[in-house]
Amino acid sequence: MASGSVEPSSAMSDFLEKSNGYAILDGGLATELERHGADLNDPLWSAKCLISSSHLIKRVHLDYLEAGADIIITASYQATIQGFEAKGLSREKSESLLWKSVEIAREARDSYYKEHGECLVNDVGNGSLLNQRPILVAASVGSYGAYLADGSEYDGNYGDLVTLETLKDFHRRRVQVLAESGADLIAFETIPNKLEAQAYAELLEEDDKNIPAWFSFNSKDGVNVVSGDSLLECASIADACKKVIAVGINCTPPRFIQGLILSIKKVTTKPILIYPNSGETYDPERKEWVKSTGISDEDFVSYVTKWREVGASLIGGCCRTTPNTIRAISKALSKGFAAPLQ
Ligand SMILES: [Zn+2]
């Protein structure tokens, strides 16, 4: 994937081929950072740790690698240049924190390889992976709503004043910085509406960026994305963009996932990724998760083989999932669900 000569469209398929046809993503970052003692009570959320406690982020990445994750997602979901500048940081410092999010994940990967003697990425410089377990670093980009931190990432309603150009201008520099950061791909996560998907697709085509991406939407009714826009239309935008190598759903209750996979399959043949939340609901006003609405790791995992059967090839967890969830997913998938039903 790091190779410039690989067509973006086949990069994910090649990667999946090397990992038995499926790959495991990591799980929730914020929950784990808090468990390790980080205080995330801040509009910058997990990005705050980039400033104050990067060692904890590395620890969590390592925990997920140990649990079986093949792809780790950086702590940049809520890291935006505008957000850092609002905290009084310079433009330069803000951009360096985006870089740092990728650097921490790459360091975690290096440490993991070192510890497990798997550092076999060839040194010819063409980036092909020779080891049995390739690990990718995905640079997270959260939505405009995640930056606003007002809950609009969960309803996708930005109001009439926000246009395609507004969103492109908002995301442009961050995407440029992350594209050159040494990440293997960009993870556009929790995309709440069609307009933002379109903005990302157009940004990826700008100035010939040499990095692939995945698009991941969220849904709260199991049919449409959270804004009410058609998932089919959103996934079609991802399908039409050459730089997009996988399309899917994250931060959505497990019970909706199977139907959503079937929908996405109608409009794309690209690999499908899913990383649901634990099923607990988030109260945007109180800015906290309502416990008691979630499901256990065992229940979560009972869905996993079904998701794989109906066509998901990248599976992990979002908010409130833990290394235990990922370990359980890894175990369930290794029990021989090599190929989805066609
Ligand atoms: Zn989430």
Give a description of the structure.
- By secondary structure, the chain is α/β, with parallel strands linked by helices.
- The protein has one domain: Homocysteine-binding-like domain (TIM Barrel, Alpha-Beta Barrel).
- It contains 13 helices and 10 strands.
- The protein has helices at 8-18, 30-35, 48-52, 54-67, 81-86, 91-116, 144-148, 164-179, 194-205, 231-240, 254-267, 297-310, 323-334, and strands at residues 23-24, 71-73, 136-141, 185-191, 213-217, 244-250, 272-275, 281-283, 288-290, 312-315.
- The strands form 2 sheets. Strands 1-10-7-6-5-4-3-2 form an 8-stranded parallel sheet.
- Helix 10 links the parallel strand 5 and strand 6 (244-250).
- The longest helix has 26 residues, at 91-116.
- The chain is globular, with a radius of gyration of 18 Å.
- It starts with 7 loop residues before the first helix and ends in an 8-residue tail after the last helix.
- Zinc ion binds next to loops.
Derived structural class: alpha/beta
CATH class: Alpha Beta
Residue share in helix: 40-55%
Unreliable spans: 1-5, 122-130, 338-342
Question: Strand sequence of the main sheet, in spatial order?
Answer: 1-10-7-6-5-4-3-2
CATH topology: TIM Barrel
CATH homology superfamily: Homocysteine-binding-like domain
Reported CATH architecture: Alpha-Beta Barrel
Mean pLDDT: 88
Number of structurally distinct domains: 1
Binding site for Zn(2+): 251, 318-319
Cofactor: Zn(2+)
Domain Hcy-binding: 11-333
Keywords: Metal-binding, Methyltransferase, Transferase, Zinc
